[in-house]
């Protein structure tokens, strides 16, 4: 049994949905209270047993690398001022098992993934999209790793979405039209990227976490760009599914889609209500605000 020990996190996009905030800083560094978006994703990977992570960046994403690098001047300043709690927060983001590679042009998620091939080699791996943050008893990536450990198949995290949101996600057509339930594993017939609401085969959405076999790289190498000039991961997985089974796993967690403004604000409130420096006052503020809105 090959252990899943490597993960890929692609962050090369422009983050146009958050302009002008992302004009000069990566979307992945926007803070949820005091923690940037991408740190949640890296922490999930590590908590799932991942040992090495490659982050696919672009030329405008250098600050992401800096976030996970050491900052000797800042650390020395905090030590001189005996601010040990802040020093610990700074040092815990300095990670030596993170690697970075650039995607030269924003040509889609499958194209970004091809730049991880030398890092992954001939091993199964996890793919985590930073736009999704999860809250649950067990990390979502670990849930998928457990599936691979038992079945040795590619597996995609899945969640039910409301009908009015199916055009925002990749949607899963399940074989035999089987509904998800009780954390069951289901074979996938196909994936459809952001279908119109009246054309969606189900309301089962891809949830931004994958375990993929290295065969996906051979599929990507044979792909041609779509009409938009992009290499689409959905198409690559559909092709892979023709030669080896790909499954959907209903995950046990709540998803916060921080790739859109509302999801970002929902996650900020959720995290703020559990943060020791903000929980009490934020709770009081929300209660008072709710009374004013009635």
Would you mind describing this structure in some detail?
The chain is of the alpha/beta class and 294 residues long. The chain has eleven helices and 13 strands. Strands 5-4-1-6-11-8-12-10-9 form a nine-stranded mixed beta sheet. Strands 2-3 form a two-stranded antiparallel sheet. Strands 7-13 form a two-stranded antiparallel sheet. Helix 3 (72-80) runs antiparallel to helix 4 (84-91) and helix 8 packs across helix 9. The protein is globular, with a radius of gyration of 20 Å. The mean pLDDT is 91.
Outline the fold blueprint.
Layout: E1 6-10, E2 31-32, E3 35-36, H1 37-47, E4 52-57, H2 62-67, H3 72-80, H4 84-91, E5 98-102, H5 109-114, H6 117-120, E6 125-128, E7 132-135, H7 140-151, E8 154-160, E9 170-174, E10 185-193, E11 204-212, H8 215-221, H9 233-240, E12 246-250, E13 254-257, H10 261-272, H11 279-293
Parallel strand pairs: 1-4, 1-6, 4-5, 8-12
Antiparallel strand pairs: 2-3, 6-11, 7-13, 8-11, 9-10, 10-12
Helix pairs in contact: 3-4, 8-9
């Amino acid at each position: 049994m090959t252990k899943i020990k490597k993960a890929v996190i692609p962050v090369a996009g422009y983050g146009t949905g958050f302009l002008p905030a992302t004009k000069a800083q990566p979307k992945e560094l926007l803070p949820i209270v005091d923690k940037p978006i991408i740190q949640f994703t890296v922490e999930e990977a590590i908590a799932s047993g991942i040992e090495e992570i490659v982050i696919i960046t672009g030329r405008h994403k250098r600050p992401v690398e800096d976030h996970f690098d050491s900052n000797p001047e800042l650390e020395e300043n905090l030590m001189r001022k005996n601010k040990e709690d802040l020093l610990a927060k700074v040092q815990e983001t300095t990670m030596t098992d993170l690697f970075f590679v650039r995607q030269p042009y924003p040509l889609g998620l499958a194209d970004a993934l091809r730049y991880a091939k030398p890092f992954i080699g001939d091993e199964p791996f996890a793919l985590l999209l930073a736009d999704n943050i999860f809250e649950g008893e067990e990390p979502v990536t670990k849930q998928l790793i457990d599936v691979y450990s038992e079945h040795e198949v590619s597996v995609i995290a899945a969640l039910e979405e409301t009908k009015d949101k199916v055009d925002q996600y990749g949607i899963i057509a399940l074989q035999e039209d089987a509904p998800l339930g009780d954390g069951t594993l289901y074979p996938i017939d196909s994936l459809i990227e952001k279908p119109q609401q009246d054309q969606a085969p189900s309301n089962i959405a891809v949830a931004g976490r994958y375990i993929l076999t290295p065969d996906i790289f051979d599929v990507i190498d044979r792909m041609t760009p779509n009409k938009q000039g992009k290499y689409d991961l959905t198409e690559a997985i559909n092709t892979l599914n023709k030669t080896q089974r790909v499954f959907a796993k209903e995950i046990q967690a709540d998803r916060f889609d921080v790739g859109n403004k509302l999801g970002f604000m929902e996650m900020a409130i959720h995290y703020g209500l559990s943060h020791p420096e903000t929980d009490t006052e934020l709770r009081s503020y929300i209660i008072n605000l709710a009374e004013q809105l009635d």
